[in-house]
Every structure is written in structure tokens, then in C-alpha cells.
Design a protein that fits this description.
By secondary structure, the chain is of the alpha/beta class. It has 3 helices and 5 strands. The protein has one domain: Double Stranded RNA Binding Domain (2-Layer Sandwich). The relative contact order is 0.16.
Amino acid sequence: MVALCQAKTNRESSTEATHECISFVSEDEPVNNLARAPLDAAVTLSGDYDFYPTSHTGCWEVNVVAMSTSSGSGACSGYAVAWAVTDPYGAMWGHGLNAGPDKDTFDRAMRAAAVDAIKDIRQMRAIKLMK
């Protein structure tokens, strides 16, 4: 009985020590302002992962690059938002590109990035369990 309680305690403490997290990474301040909050909302909605607004040791990262697109006359015609999901060791697991006519493009892109990051984390857990 004592051994079972000890095993349960060890499992619980190892779960706490390895709680998964997702962090936001971008070198571009305008991107930070438009993309960080939607990614935070999408990640924390799941309730299973911690979110960090900047790079954080041990976290999966969503790296974001964005640019505005312009028409032939030079007027802004929308945005292109690219993102890549990397594990805590720097290996890329997923990526995507979203384009659209307005700033809602950032919301759609960050929801897709969060879904991909969560899927990748779960996939990594399954691989670890198989070993």
C-alpha cells in the first residue's frame, strides 16, 4: 500500500515538473501587438497549457512573421501571417501561412498556430509513451 502511494506521489510530482507551455516569439513589434493576444487567448482557452508572451526556456514556441500586402497603387490590401511551431529543442513540428484582407487575419492565424502546437505536443507525448 505504501509503495502504491509513493508511486502516485512520484507520478504527480513528475507531471507538475513537466507541465507543457507555449511561448510567443517574434522579432517585429507590430506583429507582437497584433498576434500575441490572440495566441494567448487560443492557448489558454484549452486550460492545459501555460502561455508565455516571450521566449521561455523549456516551452514549445510559436514563431511568427508577418507583412502587409499592397495593391499596385501601394495601398494596403491585407496581411500575410506565417508561423512555425518548434519544440523545446528547436525542432520544427508544424507551420502555416494565413492571408487575408484585414487584421482578423492575425486572429485566424494564431488560432491555427495554437491548434497545431497543441496537436504537436500531444503527438510528442504519444511518441514518448510508446518508448
